[in-house]
TrEMBL record:
InterPro entries: Alpha/beta_knot_MTases (IPR029028), NA-bd_OB-fold (IPR012340), Put_MeTrfase-C9orf114-like (IPR003750), tRNA_m1G_MTases_N (IPR029026). Belongs to the class IV-like SAM-binding methyltransferase superfamily. The lineage of its organism: Eukaryota, Viridiplantae, Streptophyta, Embryophyta, Marchantiophyta. It holds the Pfam family Methyltrn_RNA_3. This is RNA methyltransferase.
Length: 368
């Protein structure tokens, strides 16, 4: 069973989470996942966001059923994060479009060195570059009732409380019920084995597994919506993909850091990599969204560059041996032709691209 270790001072870079595919120690990426709600027009979710690459994973169940077993991640470049607001806008976009993973990558060696330095997680030192954005994104994705247990005071999070909540389904209020809840394993232990978990309700619940204290877990709460009847039972911690795959619930996003554009691909958490990769650029082809055909996929990745574009990211990455950046992708698209501004900011490109790709992705998933 995968678990996500959430010891406060090593929170982001030493996660071993039960909550998503295995979280990889990288610079920052975002992935987007689609949900099937029992009909062909599937609702989408996001896995990757910053300097974004978008990926989708489809599972064994046909998308016409009440299951969602495919995700769409996306990764985006962010050289230096200057504004706290940017993280809030990206996190909000992720929740709105049901993104499952965010991958943030550095577009230059200098930026990568700064991010690597930040990985030491000094409690007082501020993060730089990708690490700053990644920490904020992870903080915003965490349910409010778990934040004090999982995070210590940190300079980068000093003003995070000013950001708007993303309010996805797993950010439950105390009185709300869903068949799953996020929780953190406590130090105290039941006499008859297992673990106590704080899941944000009146009393702590018990799970049958013995899991290290400080680990964030997804707990299956059963079918009884009366929490008082749960306190005498032993519940079970489950993989964080269960809410999405078994009930179609959007369950937040994981965050992955990548030191370069090439690392977004080579450090992919999926054994078979990404089936279909889409790059976005003002120099790409300009098909109408209604005419764009995407093949059926298990893992779809959509990649965004920074202000200078993916072309700059290619020049700065010595591991990539291609002449044209478009050769890295199955499709290289301009999702906003005839733009009036010289540049489109990353957070703007994310919203534009996700809306543009909605119908093509739905059509692709309905072909199975």
């Amino acid at each position: 069973m995968d678990t996500r270790t959430v010891e406060p001072e090593t929170m982001f870079f030493e996660e071993n989470q039960i909550r998503a595919l295995n979280t990889v120690e990288t610079s920052a990426a975002f992935s987007y996942s689609m949900a099937e709600q029992g009909r062909v027009d599937i609702t989408k979710s996001i896995h990757c966001l910053v300097s974004p690459i978008l990926k989708a994973q489809a599972g064994e169940v046909c998308c016409l059923l009440d299951y969602r077993q495919y995700t769409v991640p996306r990764a985006c470049f962010l050289g230096v994060v200057g504004k706290l607001q940017l993280a809030g806008q990206i996190a909000r976009a992720a929740a709105i479009f049901r993104i499952d993973e965010i991958v943030v990558y550095d577009d230059s060696e200098k930026s990568a060195r700064l991010s690597a330095k930040s990985r030491k997680w000094s409690e007082c030192a501020a993060d730089t570059g990708s690490a700053f954005l990644a920490r904020l994104l992870q903080f915003l994705e965490t349910p409010q009732y778990l934040r004090k247990s999982l995070y210590t005071m940190h300079t980068s999070l000093k003003y995070a409380g000013m950001l708007p909540p993303i309010d996805p389904p797993h950010h439950l209020r105390q009185s709300e019920w869903l068949p799953y809840r996020e929780g953190v394993v406590l130090e105290k232990r039941p006499d008859d084995g297992g673990s106590f978990v704080n899941v944000g309700i009146i009393k702590d619940v018990r799970i049958s597994q013995f899991i290290k204290a400080g680990t964030r877990v997804t707990v299956a709460m059963g079918e009884d919506s009366n929490y008082k009847r749960l306190f005498g039972k032993k519940l079970k911690a489950v993989p964080p993909t269960d809410p999405r795959e078994k009930t179609g619930l959007y369950w937040g996003f994981s965050v992955r850091l990548a030191p370069s554009l090439s690392a977004v691909f080579t450090e992919c958490p999926f054994e078979d990599g990404y089936d279909h990769i889409i790059g976005t650029s003002e120099h790409g082809e300009q098909p109408n969204s209604a005419d764009l055909e995407i093949p059926y996929f298990r893992h779809l990745l959509v990649v965004f560059g920074g202000v200078t574009g993916l072309e700059h990211s290619l020049k700065e990455d010595n591991s990539l041996e291609v002449e044209e950046v478009s050769y890295l992708f199955d499709r290289y698209l301009n999702v906003c032709p005839d733009q009036g501004s010289r540049t489109i900011r990353t957070e703007e490109a994310i919203l534009i691209a996700l809306q543009y790709l909605q119908n093509p992705i739905q059509r692709a998933c309905s072909r199975r």
